Amino acid sequence: MTEEIFKDLSLCGETTKVQFKQAFTSQREIAKEMIAFANSKGGVFQDSGSYQTDAAGVDGTALADLDRYAIDEYLMKVYSLNMESLGEKAEQMLNNIHILNNSGKPTLAGYLFFGKHPEYNCPTCMVKAVSFFGNELGGTQYRDTKEILGNMPQVYEKSMAFLKSNLHNIQEEGASFNTLGKLEIPGNVLEEVLQNALIHRDLLRPALIRIFIFDNRVEIISPGALAGGLTEEDIRNGKTYQRNPFMATFATNALHYRGIGSGIVRILAECPNMVFQNDSDGNEFKVTLFRGVLDTIQKDESTIQKEVLTIQKAEITTQKTEITTQKEDSTIQKTGSTIQKTSSTIQKDAYFSEGKVLKFFSEHPQATIDEAVDAIEDLSLGGVKFIIAKLQQKGLLKRVGGRKHGEWVVCNDENNIK
After folding, report:
1. I need a surface site. Which of 108, 177, 310, 387 has the fewest CB within 10 A?
2. What is the dihedral of CA 220, 223, 225, 230, to 10 degrees?
3. pLDDT, tens digit (0-9, with 9 covering 90-100), for 168-225
């Protein structure tokens, strides 16, 4: 069926109603065609708000498939009630708050949040997590991997545990030995990105949420591109659209979710190098968070000089008993010269790399990041993304328009390339 035929058949009116019935032999075929059309067009029914996937009943399930203790905990927290106190009105109450639908079946939102085993009837609504050696998705070795199952609060807690166990805790400079280190990616940043992936995923798309941990970054990938016509710039500015409103309601009371759009703004203040990729063609949304290991590598020049001087002093101390004062002075001079050359090389390399990226996008404003990686030698995908984020912070490079039809704009002020 073509898009035009579908639109014609779905119009209101007696003639088109007859045509629609004649085009298919059963309601099941009609529903199947409508869902296929919606998926192929990026979820147009969901985006319009006329169809709420999370309100649909889950076939083959009943109230008995829900965890009563989880429901009681939720009701007590939100309404100071429980199932027993509601008595005969319990099912009506669950219907009113969209845990059950009008037929008494668990809604998809209710099943995912309160189901005993949601993976039985919704096998793609889980998380696949992998911690790789190195920085390439095609790597053949991994440190850890898990398929994370359970209801939504359980999946959230298990996913956070996986992230924290595979990231480093780093002590602040000057802290005592017994001081607990801070997670290299702040915990509240991980919480916000993970909750958004769980709550705003496209439930019509049969794909898993994926968590990939590399040596230099973390990627959290959610099925479904941004809904409601939102762009990457929109969410950076705090705009929001609830693709799954009932799941969002449950999350507001059961998780740390607020649903007002301010979370992204807050975490961007802590992690300005965070990268959003809204892939409308692949129908997925990816958030990339760079690890503290990368920040350590990219320290500013003054910090590098301090560390080198500390190493230099330690070397001089060990050599005092073995060499004369003249040799020590000579060694210090040579080391100092090497430090200056190394520092100069670091500056030149950084300046040259930024210059190459700026030059490429000034000549190819509509190019993609992948095309930049192919065209610029000695820079990986992660390196190009990091330099782009740094140039955007300096105001030397900005993105105008959407992902498919936008372009890169270079602001010519080379004095800011440091």
Report:
1. 177
2. -70
3. 988 777 666 667 778 899 999 999 999 999 999 999 888 999 999 999 999 999 999 9
DSSP state of 227: S
Q: What is the pLDDT of residues 378-405, one digit of tens each?
A: 788 888 888 888 888 888 888 887 777 7
For 199, the token pair is 């709550």
371 to 30, 106, 232, 298, 384: CA distances (angstroms): 42, 47, 20, 24, 10
CA dist., res. 219 & res. 101, Å (int) = 35
Distance of CA 53 to the CA centre of its chain: 22
Which tokens hold the place of 233? 């710039």
Which of the 8 DSSP states describes residue 97? T
Q: Is-contact 209 197, C-beta < 8 A? A: yes
For 75, the enclosing helix (H) or strand (E) is: helix 68-79
Task: Locate all alpha helices (DSSP H) within 255-324, ordered by sequence.
Answer: 262-270, 292-297, 301-319
Question: Which ranges constitute the DSSP H helices of 125-231?
Answer: 152-165, 187-200
Cα separations in angstroms, 238 against 103, 230, 231, 400: 37, 11, 11, 18
pLDDT top residue among 250 and 52: 250
Question: For 19-25, what is the mean pLDDT?
Answer: 52
User: In this structure, what DSSP letter does residue 242 have?
Assistant: -
Under 8 Å between Cβ of 410 and 362? yes
Task: Answer yes or no: is pLDDT of 127 > 70.
Answer: yes
**Can you give the pLDDT at residue 299?**
44
What's the token pair of residue 376? 């610029």
Q: pLDDT digits over 217-252, tens only?
A: 999 999 999 988 889 999 888 888 888 999 989 988
Q: How far, CA to CA in Å, does 382 sit from each of 163, 235, 274, 290, 388?
A: 20, 22, 12, 9, 10
DSSP element (H, E) containing 147: strand 142-148
Residue reference for tokens 């030059």? 359
